[in-house]
Amino acid sequence: MPHVSDFYGVIIWMYWDEKTSKHHLPHIHAEYFGHEAVVSIPEGEVLDADPAFPQKKIRMVQTWIDIHAEELMADWSLAERHGEIFKIRGLDK
Predict the structure, then answer these.
(1) Tens digit of pLDDT per residue, the chain (93 long)?
(2) What residue ranges do the domains of the chain occupy?
(3) Sequence-ordered list of residues with C-beta below 8 angstroms from that of 11, at least 6 positions apart, any chain
(4) Predicted structure pTM score
């Protein structure tokens, strides 16, 4: 799964696998100390989340998605075509 960004302990991943993806909408995977959340782009809707994923961190991810929506959608388009995606600046950089 390609690493897209990280900030404040949250790691953002993106991948496309048409055979195993249970989320067909554009989305990112956020990981925070072993807890995962799946969030749609560009809307920021939580599609799936570990109940232990802190809501404060979910809101940070949603803010980051809002700031970088165009870049994320460009990366999603590349990922769909199995292309190399670009890193995106985190909130703390």
Answers:
(1) 789 999 999 999 997 665 555 557 899 999 999 999 999 999 999 999 999 999 999 999 999 999 999 999 999 999 888 888 999 999 986
(2) 3-80
(3) 3, 5, 30, 31, 32
(4) 0.89
